[in-house]
TrEMBL record:
Native species: Aequitasia blattaphilus
Transmembrane stretches, start-end: 28-51, 57-75, 96-115, 127-148, 169-190, 196-217, 245-266, 286-309, 316-335, 341-362, 382-402, 432-451
Coiled coil: none
Alphabetically ordered keywords of this record: Membrane, Transmembrane, Transmembrane helix
Protein name, entry field: Glycoside-pentoside-hexuronide (GPH):cation symporter
Gene3D superfamilies referenced in this protein's UniProt entry, alphabetically: MFS general substrate transporter like domains (1.20.1250.20)
NCBIfam families found in the cross-reference section: gph
A Pfam family the protein falls into: MFS_2
Length: 474
């Protein structure tokens, strides 16, 4: 008979240090399955939405660029609001995990609507795309911010957090692989019975249904062992706390820039992949394979993270992932149009580096939370996660809006033979833009990030001592 892991009597300590608990295997896989499920839908957006809007729904690239940019501006308001809501509220059943359960079904419905193509006029198509795309992003924020914040309440043990996040990101990237294969291939198969646009909608509906089931199950596997600080009714979190943490707590700002750089790499390659393989390589039939090579090798990269962190520490692991991603982008730049094997190999190098980054970034993300708690005396986990989320959302401006705007200015016309200038623009956006972004990220993170394992452990002990003193005084 299995133990009831919700019962504190069954919690296993890994150290005498405050909040150091061992995570049960079912809990690790339950928590991680949520990101697998989210990526079944999120990667449909990241990998194919720009291509879907321009080449299937018939929206001009310049208008897609504006749509993405306006959506990110709204995120700059919506995301901090969600972060402050999470910090201002606590529920009897838990602080963070409950949002996942509440958001599962609405998020699945919004995904299907985003890939629905009603027979509207061009202007109404833009309105439909704007409403559904923004609704989807808002619901994604509603789930993902509490989800990533919940890890900080499951355990304080850095090794357990690394194990949790490595498993999580391995499953997240696996969800991306499923999406990369399923969406174009199943949609193409369904064209025997319906239009391609309808095929995209039906395929998304299938994956959304699977996602909802997993989210509902996985949310109930999360155990918030480390008590969240009580909400002070006279000193509740507000929007000012978001920007105060961003601009006055150095490690939080550096982490924001790190996520901005890494996710810009991912978003650029996701946005441009379909255009690159269709117009530069001339192999539209290889779209699912090319997309898959951005995801599949990353699944192998994630499990390497615990081994790497034991040998070159967290910061060294981040730097290795960044360098590999940059090498892959550089190699891809030198591939001629017919070198499909070389293109796939270059994509695989970047993907492996990206997998390492996904495994380590979500392991060190809680370190700035500890630092901010120590410096400010307030543990605003969801607000720090909001800032990281903003880094990801702003990456979508650089990786989504910028490429489509540049393509529009170069003269791109959907489903036509492109001019040489457009083809070279597609090539440069796919390779040189992410290379430049990663290069800047390497310099910034390498020079300015200084939270090593020993420093974080020391900070955690100081926080525990401070909290104990507060309890004694009260």
């Amino acid at each position: 008979m299995s133990k009831n892991m919700k019962d504190p009597a069954n919690w296993e300590k890994t150290s005498s240090q405050y909040g150091y608990y061992k995570l049960a295997r079912k809990e690790v896989w339950g928590y991680s399955s949520i990101d697998f499920a989210m990526n079944l839908v999120f990667q449909c957006i990241a990998l194919y939405i720009s291509y879907f809007y321009t080449d299937i729904f018939g929206i001009r690239p310049g208008h897609v660029a504006i749509l993405f940019a306006v959506s990110r501006l709204w995120d700059a308001i919506n995301d901090p609001l969600m972060g402050t809501i999470c910090e201002r509220l606590s529920f009897k059943k838990g602080k963070y995990w409950i949002y996942i359960m509440w958001g599962a079904i609405p998020f699945g419905v919004a995904a299907v609507l985003t890939y629905t193509t009603p027979d509207f006029s061009y202007g109404m198509k833009l309105v439909w795309a704007a409403i559904t795309y923004n609704l989807l992003n808002m619901l994604y924020t509603f789930i993902i911010q509490p989800y990533i914040s919940a890890a900080s309440l499951m355990t304080n043990d850095q090794n357990e957090r690394t194990r949790l996040q490595s498993t999580r990101m391995m499953l997240a990237q696996s969800g991306g692989v499923v999406c990369a294969i399923m969406l174009p291939n199943l949609s193409g198969f369904l064209t025997k019975y319906m239009t391609l646009a309808q095929g995209y909608m039906v395929t998304t509906a299938i994956m959304a249904a699977v996602m909802v089931i997993i989210l509902l199950w996985g949310s109930h596997q999360i155990i918030e062992r480390v008590p969240a600080p009580p909400v002070d009714p006279n000193n509740k979190a507000n929007i000012k706390d978001v920007f105060r943490l961003l601009f006055t707590v150095g490690p939080v700002f550096i982490m924001f820039l790190l996520f901005l750089g890494v996710y810009t790499l991912s978003q650029v390659q996701s946005t441009m992949g379909a255009y690159y393989i269709k117009y530069y390589a001339g192999r539209e039939d290889m779209l699912s394979w090319f997309s898959m090579m951005m995801m599949l090798p990353s699944v192998a990269g994630v499990p390497c993270v615990p081994w790497l962190t034991r040998r070159i520490k967290k910061k060294g692991t981040v730097m290795l992932g960044l360098v590999l991603a940059a090498i892959g982008a550089l190699v891809l730049y030198f591939m001629p149009p017919g070198a499909l094997g070389g293109m796939l190999a270059a994509r695989a190098i970047t993907s492996f580096g990206y997998g390492i980054l996904m495994g380590i970034l979500w392991s060190i993300i809680t370190d700035p939370v500890e630092y901010a708690d120590w410096k400010t005396g307030k543990r605003y986990t969801a607000i720090v996660m909001t800032l990281i989320g903003l880094g990801i959302k702003f990456a979508m401006i650089i990786g989504g809006s910028l490429p489509t705007a540049v393509m529009e200015s170069a003269g791109y016309v959907a489903n036509e033979v492109q001019t040489e200038a457009v083809v070279q623009t597609i090539r440069n956006l796919t390779t040189l833009l992410p290379l430049a972004v990663i290069g800047v990220t390497i310099v910034i993170f390498g020079i300015f990030y200084r939270l090593d394992e020993e420093t974080v452990s020391d900070i955690q002990q100081k926080i525990a001592d401070r909290n104990a003193q507060r309890e004694n005084l009260s």
